Amino acid sequence: MKNYFLTVIFLLFAGFAGEKLSAQNIAINTDGSTPDVSAMLDIVNSSKGLLIPRVSLTSTTDASTIANPATSLLVYNTNASITGEYAAGVGYYYNAGTTGSPNWKRLVGDGETRWDDLRVVLDNGSYAASIGYLSGSSGPQIWYFRDNGTVEAMSFTVQLPHSWKEGTTIYPHLHWVPKASETGNVEWNFEYTWANYDPVTTQVFPAITTSTVVSTGPFTANSHKITALTSANAGIDGTGKKISSILICRIWRNSANASDTYNDYAGVLFIDFHIQIDGWGSREEYIK
């Protein structure tokens, strides 16, 4: 027979309606031990766990499913279609807001997938783009791929971080601005080769792959554009690739190509890769 021990006997006067019951510390166990002094509730059982209430939250601001939810209230949301900012399906959520204005945030565990930007820095080389002012004759400068009838290019390298979810597709894209308001299209060419690092087996960079995409106008001067650098934003297949693998890349424009009909400069703001991450780094130096 299980004996559940309560540090304060509160059966006295329990029969009186409306009587409030309280205890300094409560222990629920099968061995009669007293609760830890630091815990308001101390549960001990070698074969059972604590089941958090399962609730179907409608949104991350749901204030009606649970009336007046206290700040820090914890539930397990069962609604896969929960909406709102940072909604992420079923899982543990806590109220990071107030009783009157709840803000349900999901607790994220190691191994769950999230998206992040892997940002890279451009480096000039042969046939480099030209540095120029974003506007006028002073102020910040960016790299411009000019309309000069020849190839202009920039190179860069990318290392996949230890937080990356190994083997998943990565999605390169370009942030850029048209120099002038004009019609026409800009053809972007993206080249890369990708190799793992293996301290035991030598890894060789394979043949270069080229992806060609076209940004269609008309364009507005100095408007922030984003162009996926793979066809239909299919990304680069990461099957078999590991953390610390390296891509060697080049982006270039040849304004003489028939499909490049924009008669002005195209300025690059940034190149980055959308990647999936599944943890805070790796558990070993070169192994996920």
What does this protein structure show overall?
It is a single chain. By secondary structure, the chain is mainly beta. The chain has three domains: 1-48, no CATH class; 51-107, no CATH class; 114-277, Galactose-binding domain-like (Jelly Rolls), CATH 2.60.120. Helices cover 0% and strands 34% of the residues. It is built from no helices and 16 strands. Strands 7, 8, 9, 11, 14 and 16 form a six-stranded antiparallel beta sheet that branches. The chain has a four-stranded mixed beta sheet with strand order 3-4-5-6, with no helix packed on it. The protein has a four-stranded antiparallel beta sheet with strand order 10-15-12-13, with no helix packed on it. A hairpin with an 8-residue loop joins β5 and β6 (104-106).
Which features characterize this protein?
3 domains, four-stranded mixed sheet, 16 strands, elongated, disordered N terminus
